[in-house]
Amino acid sequence: MAGDGDNKTRVNLNSSTNLDQDTDIEVCDICIVPESSTHLTVTTVLLYCKQKILNPYLRLLSFMGLRSLLNEREPSFCLRVFNNFYTATAILFMLMGYVLQYMSCFRRDRGFWYVITSDTRYTKTSVNTIFMETCEGSLVFTFVIPSILHFTAYLHAIYVFRSGDDEQLPVLMERVFLITTNLSSSFVTQKKLVRTLWFYIIFSVLWMISCFAVVNFMMTVGNINFKWLEDSTSSWGLWLMKILLVICTLAHDMVQATIISNYCLQAELLTNYALFLKEKILQQSVVPLEWMREIEDFKKLLNYFNNQIAHSVCILTIINISFSCSGLVWISNLDNIDRETLSGLTFSILNIALWCFIALSPFVLAARLSHACQKLKTSGQEARTRPYVHLDTPTIELDSILLYTTSLNVCAKLYFTRITGTKICLYMTIVAISLLVLGQCHYLVFK
Where are its TM segments located (predicted)? Predict the structure, then answer.
């Protein structure tokens, strides 16, 4: 028994695609592994992964309706009915939010958007001028298209997460955590990875809280009227409609933050996966064929990431960029109809900054992933020049690794386009110069 703990365990990543779901071990009674531990068993690594990040995040996805709320290997009829009912309720709640935003003339880029118009009425004895707040603008571009895009992204995310063979996130987490067992300071690396993943989750929560605060502030500015209910809604009914509007808007933001945070988490995991694969070939002597198989598994996960997970994020990014640009045009007094900033300038700028932040996040993480993939392509050349690590490896095997890595064609894609840090810096430079020139020419004037 004592000798078992001293033997090094070789991890077969191909056999770890499916987590050992038959043995649901209680994670609440896991013994804490000291940081000085250098050799961790596969069971310990998987339990640590499940306890610290995987199970809590899967519960969040289930709460948002993206996964089944109650999961079992063979769910009963009643359980399937309950899961479908919960998903249908979430969808109806989303639809109700779109309708309430139109009824209250609530725009995510600028708040409750009412334009003050005047109506002059002539009588035999006097002339009366009546000022009214009306909801002007294009219904299709202001409410219909953004709502359809947001709802389509939500349905696509549900389809991806509910597809029968979709275990992308659990499998990816397992493989990344398992491959760290072959590296030096494996437990420290795993703890750092967990902190990084929670960093993205916490930032998504902070983004939702900030959006919630901005929406509540916007409700305090001006009067709010609901179409078709101007004369029939009592004071308590109006407050009820306002509360429903805030809750539904928060649900929209939670869905968006969850989908984009899932993309960021998987991008971070794939980035670490590529870097760990490079460290593995550089730190120790491995069988070239086995290492190439691991690269092929990485390519499959990356292709699924680019061709499935990224689509809903691309749809949401269209909305987020349009909200950012529309809000910037609005506070710059360039709107064709409304040239007055109705809400506080500080909160308007904060609102635009929030949309810019969530719009740029996927591009930044995709650029990091592409950079890691580029490093993986150079690992064969570095392994070929290492004089000590691969001293006993035949030259023909090292040449095969070099030829294989240089022919790799892996990168992160959004809108079917390679995303790199160079492209992002170039585009941001063009945008910054354009804004500076427009400001110098007095086209952009902030109050």
Answer: 81-100, 197-219, 239-260, 309-332, 344-367, 424-445
